[in-house]
């Protein structure tokens, strides 16, 4: 199983605008991977954080006043998480 540090190093293109990846909180990391990551990225962060925690955080991020998720991303993860 990969660690979050490994995933961040392997996917720096998702965080092109962030100078110090170590300062990112869990929600910021999950948001980038959910919005811009591929299926392997999603499975990796799910294995690190757990599906239930990822689902809870997805709902929190989705329901923010200014969500960064596209309509396609919301539709996909609503179906995936059954919410």
Number of domains: 1
State mean pLDDT (0 to 100 scale). Answer: 95
Secondary structure class reads: mainly alpha
Largest sheet: none
* Helix content class: 55-70%
From the structure provided, what is the oligomeric state, counting identical versus distinct chains? single chain
Which outline best applies? globular
- The gyration radius over C-alpha positions equals 12 Å
Strand content of the residues, in percent? under 5%
Distance between the termini: 27 Å
Count the E strands: 0
The low-pLDDT segments are: none
Total helical elements: 5
Q: Element order, helices and strands?
A: HHHHH
Task: Please characterize this protein's 3D structure.
The structure is a single chain. This protein is an all-alpha fold and 83 residues long. The chain has one domain (4-81). It has helices at 4-10, 26-36, 39-49, 51-62, 71-81. Helix 2 (26-36) crosses helix 4 and helix 3 (39-49) packs across helix 4 (51-62). The model has no long low-confidence stretch (mean pLDDT 95).
Question: Which tags fit this structure?
Answer:
about 80 residues, mainly alpha, 5 helices, about 65% helix, globular
Quick summary:
The chain has 83 residues and is mainly alpha-helical. The chain has helices at 4-10, 26-36, 39-49, 51-62, 71-81.
